[in-house]
Design brief:
The complex is a heterodimer of chains A (324) and B (248). Chain A has 324 residues and is of the alpha/beta class. Helix content of chain A is 27%, strand content 30%. In chain A, strands 7-11-6-1-4-5-12 form a seven-stranded parallel beta sheet, with helices on both faces. In chain A, strands 15-14-16-17-18 form a five-stranded parallel beta sheet. In chain A, helix 3 packs across helix 4 and helix 5 runs parallel beside helix 8. Chain B has 248 residues and is α/β, with parallel strands linked by helices. Chain B has one domain: Rossmann fold (3-Layer(aba) Sandwich). In chain B, 29% of the residues lie in helices and 31% in strands. In chain B, the strands form two sheets. Chain B has a nine-stranded mixed beta sheet, with helices on both faces. In chain B, strands 2-3 form a two-stranded antiparallel ribbon. Chain B starts with a strand and ends with a helix. Classes of the chains: A alpha/beta (324), B alpha/beta (248). The interface between A and B is large, with 93 and 86 residues. Strand 10 of chain A pairs antiparallel with strand 12 of chain B, so a sheet runs across the interface.
C-alpha cells in the first residue's frame, strides 16, 4: 500500500502543515507497513524538498516548473492526481489549509476518491482508516470512514504534531508532468500579503478582542499585548461587523477556525459561534468583566475584571518576566 | 448571463446539537433551519452580476420539500427561478455535487456560485467537486470578484494575505464572507417570490463514499481557574502560563 503526503510550500518554503502532514502520514504508514511518498509541487522546490526526510519521508517526488511558482487550482490538481496515479497511491493526505481545501476536491474527482476534510484525528482500526472531523462548527464530532478504494483526508492545521525533526535528508525524485496553458484556467497572478504582522490562522498565540472593548481605539492595547507575545491579533464577529477590525482577523463560525497554543480572549463573551472558531486552542485565557460570560466555561485561566486595567498590566508584567 | 447558484438548507447557528437515537445524525427536534449563510452571499453575488450585465439567476438546492423555504428566501431576494432536486437518502459531498453538476450540465450556465461550506457538516467540497466534474475552473474563498466581458479577476483568502486569481467564464466561484453584504428581501420581493416557479425533480440515490460511523458531542472541558478579579491577579496569571501551561 502506498500513502501519499502532499507537502504545501509557498514561495519555495515549506508551510508548517507540510511537516504535520508528512509526520502523520508516516505514522499511519508505519502502522500498516506501507510506503510513504511525499509530493512537492512548485517553482523551485528541489533545494528544500529533502527537508521532508526529517519528518519521516524517505521518498520525495518533486514536480518543478516556473509556471507552478504561483498556485493554480487546475494545474496543481492535475499534477497531484497524475503523481498519485503513477504511484498508485491509495491514501492521500493534504493539509486543510486554504490551498489544501481548494485543490483536494478537484483531485478527489480525478481519482474517484472519497474525501474527508478538516480532520482533527485519524486512526487505523481493523485495517480501515477512521477520521474524526468536527461538524456543526465543532458542536459535534463525527467518526467517518471512506468506502472508495482511494481515500483522501485533509488535516486541520496546527492539530497534528510534526514531531521532532531528525537529521535525515530524503532522496528526491524529479518528475515531469506535461502542462499546457489549458491547465492554468484558474491561476494566481499576484499575492498580496496582509498588513497584519501575523496571520491568525498560523499564529501560535492569538490575542483576540471583542465588543466589550467599547471602541476601536481600545484595540491599541490588544495590539500591544499581541506584540509583546509575538502573537496575532484576532477579533470577534461583532467588532468586524462594526468595522473596527478587518475580516481577516475574525475568529469564529463565519470567520477563521484557529488552533493556537494560546488564545487570549479579551472582552469577548464567548457566543457559541465564536467558540466554534477557537475551542481547539490548547490553552485559553479569558479576561472579562462578566463572571457569567460563557467564555469562562472553556477557559483554562481567567480573570474576571476590567480589561482596560488588566490588559495593560498583563503587557507590563510580561515585559518584566520576558525581559523585554 | 445565465447565473446558477447552489444553496443549502441548514440548521441555524443557534442549534444545540443533540445526537439522535441512531448515534450518527443530529436530532432534528427543535431545530430551526436557514439559508446557509455562505450560500446567501453567493445568491447576493449572483444578483449583483445580473444587475450588472442582465440575465437570469436560477437557484438550486438538493433535499426535500423543506428546502423550498430556503429557495423562497432566495427568490424573495430576487432570483428568477428555483429548482429543488429531491432525494432524502443519505448523501456525502460527492453525491451532492454529482446531482448539482448534472443539473448544471443541462442548464449550461455562464457562471456557478456557491458558498465555501455548509455550516452543518463543514465539508467545504461541493464547489470544487462540481467544477471538476464539469471541467470548469474554480476559485474558492473569494472575497472580491470582478467579471467583465467573460474575464474573471478574483481575490481569494489565503493564510497571511490574498491571492489575485485570473480566470474566464464559464467558471465556479466559491464565496467567502466579506465578498458582499446580502440584501434583505423587500416586501415586494417576498410577494413576488410566492408567484415564482420552484421546479421539482427527483434525483437518483448515490451511496456515500464518506460514511459517518458515529457522531458525538465533544467532551466538556474541565473547569478552568479564575485567577482573580483585578490587576493583582496578573502576576499569578503570567506565572501559571509560564510554569504550569508552559506556553510563554
Amino acid at each position: 500500500m502506498k500513502i501519499i503526503a502532499f507537502a504545501e510550500q509557498r514561495n519555495n518554503q515549506f508551510k508548517k502543515t507540510a511537516f504535520e502532514v508528512v509526520r502523520t502520514a508516516k505514522t499511519i504508514a508505519d502502522r500498516l507497513s506501507a510506503e510513504l511518498v511525499a509530493v512537492v509541487v512548485g517553482g523551485n522546490v528541489s533545494p528544500i524538498a529533502g527537508e521532508l526526510g526529517k519528518y519521516g519521508a524517505s521518498r520525495v517526488i518533486v514536480v518543478e516548473d516556473s509556471r507552478l511558482q504561483n498556485y493554480s487550482t487546475t494545474a496543481y490538481a492535475k499534477v497531484v492526481a497524475e503523481i498519485a496515479k503513477q504511484e498508485s497511491g491509495q491514501v492521500i493526505f493534504f493539509p486543510a489549509s486554504s490551498l489544501g481545501k481548494d485543490v483536494a476536491p478537484r483531485v478527489a474527482v480525478k481519482l474517484d476518491a472519497g474525501l474527508a476534510t478538516d480532520c482533527t484525528a485519524i486512526r487505523v482500526e481493523n485495517g480501515d482508516f477512521v477520521a474524526t472531523r468536527p461538524v456543526f462548527a465543532g458542536k459535534g464530532l463525527t467518526d467517518v470512514h471512506i468506502t472508495s478504494p482511494v481515500k483522501m483526508f485533509s488535516l486541520r492545521p496546527n492539530v497534528f504534531s510534526a514531531g521532532t525533526p531528525s537529521g535525515e535528508i530524503a532522496a528526491i525524485e524529479k518528475r515531469d508532468v506535461s502542462l499546457t496553458d489549458a491547465d492554468f484556467t484558474a491561476a494566481v497572478k499576484e499575492v498580496k500579503a496582509s498588513s497584519a504582522k501575523k496571520d491568525v490562522a498560523e499564529a501560535d498565540i492569538i490575542v483576540s478582542g471583542g465588543r466589550g472593548l467599547k471602541s476601536p481605539e481600545h484595540f491599541a492595547m490588544i495590539e500591544e499585548l499581541a506584540s509583546t507575545l509575538n502573537a496575532a491579533v484576532g477579533a470577534s464577529r461583532a467588532v468586524v461587523d462594526a468595522g473596527w477590525r478587518p475580516h481577516d482577523e475574525q475568529v469564529g463560525q463565519t470567520g477563521k477556525t484557529v488552533a493556537p497554543t494560546l488564545y487570549i480572549a479579551v472582552a469577548i463573551s464567548g457566543a457559541v459561534q465564536h467558540l466554534a472558531g477557537m475551542s481547539s486552542s490548547k490553552y485559553i485565557v479569558a479576561i472579562n468583566k462578566d463572571k457569567d460570560a460563557p467564555i469562562f466555561s472553556i477557559a483554562d485561566y481567567g480573570i474576571v475584571g476590567d480589561a482596560f486595567e488588566i490588559v495593560p498590566a498583563f503587557s507590563a508584567e510580561l515585559k518584566k518576566v520576558l525581559g523585554k | 448571463m445565465k447565473i446558477l447558484v447552489f444553496v443549502n438548507h441548514v440548521p441555524d447557528t443557534e442549534t444545540k446539537v443533540k445526537v439522535s437515537g441512531d448515534g450518527k445524525t443530529i436530532d432534528p427536534a427543535g431545530v430551526n433551519y436557514m439559508l446557509n449563510p455562505y450560500d446567501e452571499i453567493a445568491v447576493e453575488e449572483g444578483l449583483k452580476l445580473k444587475e450588472k450585465s442582465s440575465g437570469e439567476v436560477v437557484v438550486v438546492s438538493l433535499g426535500t420539500d423543506a428546502n423550498k423555504e430556503t429557495l423562497r428566501k432566495a427568490l424573495a431576494m430576487g432570483c428568477d427561478k428555483a429548482v429543488v432536486l429531491k432525494d432524502n437518502s443519505p448523501r456525502d459531498s460527492f453525491g451532492v455535487a454529482r446531482a448539482l453538476a448534472d443539473y448544471a450540465k443541462e442548464y449550461a450556465p455562464d457562471i456557478i456560485l456557491c458558498g465555501k461550506q455548509s455550516i452543518d457538516y463543514d465539508n467545504a467540497q461541493v464547489g470544487g467537486l462540481v467544477a471538476e466534474m464539469l471541467g470548469l475552473p474554480s476559485i474558492s474563498v473569494v472575497v472580491k470578484l470582478d467579471v467583465t466581458g467573460g474575464v474573471i479577476v478574483a481575490e481569494r483568502e489565503i493564510e497571511g494575505g490574498h491571492e489575485i486569481v485570473h480566470s474566464r467564464l464559464p467558471a465556479v466561484i466559491i464565496a467567502q464572507k466579506g465578498l458582499n453584504q446580502p440584501r434583505y428581501p423587500s416586501l415586494k420581493g417576498i410577494m413576488d417570490a410566492k408567484r415564482k416557479l420552484i421546479e421539482e425533480r427527483v434525483v437518483a440515490e448515490i451511496k456515500p463514499r464518506v460514511e459517518v460511523l458515529a457522531m458525538k458531542k465533544p467532551s466538556p472541558k474541565p473547569l478552568g481557574k479564575i485567577v482573580g478579579t483585578d490587576t493583582s491577579a496578573v502576576p499569578e496569571l503570567v506565572r501559571l502560563l509560564h510554569e504550569e501551561a508552559k506556553v510563554i
